[in-house]
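quick one, 175 residues, struct below
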Amino acid sequence: MARPEAPVSVKYFTAVLFSSLDLFAVAKRILQEKWGRLDLEGVPHLFEVTDYYQAEMGSPLYRSIVSFAELMDPSEIVERKLICNDIEEDLALEGKRRVNLDAGYLDHNKVVLASAKAAGQKIYLDRGIYADLAGRYKSGRYQPFEWSFPDFKDGRYDRELLFIRKRYLGQLNEL
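---
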């Protein structure tokens, strides 16, 4: 019989969707106040895969991935998503979000995003939050699934995700 064991720590990141570099800077500052030093600030990638957010957030939109230096337990994803939602609300103007924050983590073989929306592939965790398996590491990159967000599918974040993975594996080796 297998005995339950504590999980291996994971590398948390946040995918930040924004229309203004000033708002991106504010969001980064708040995220660092909550979770500590960033060890990666990815480049802003044009976010043109959907117009879903434009009425609320304006255009053009960009998404950048930032990762945090400290490794944490994977169960923290619920609290991180709830905090991201609070930050979005705090930065909203007249009820409209100005940033969208997607909390997630990666380990050596997968990328997981937190979601407050149910869907067939998502697994309920707690407090209204679901885990969405967004990719698995195979053949030198995180391979997306049919349900993965289009911008995660097209490879635009591969460089950042692989950098985060390399740093993560280095941190595990130091432990």
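Residues 141 and 162 are 7 Å apart (CA to CA).
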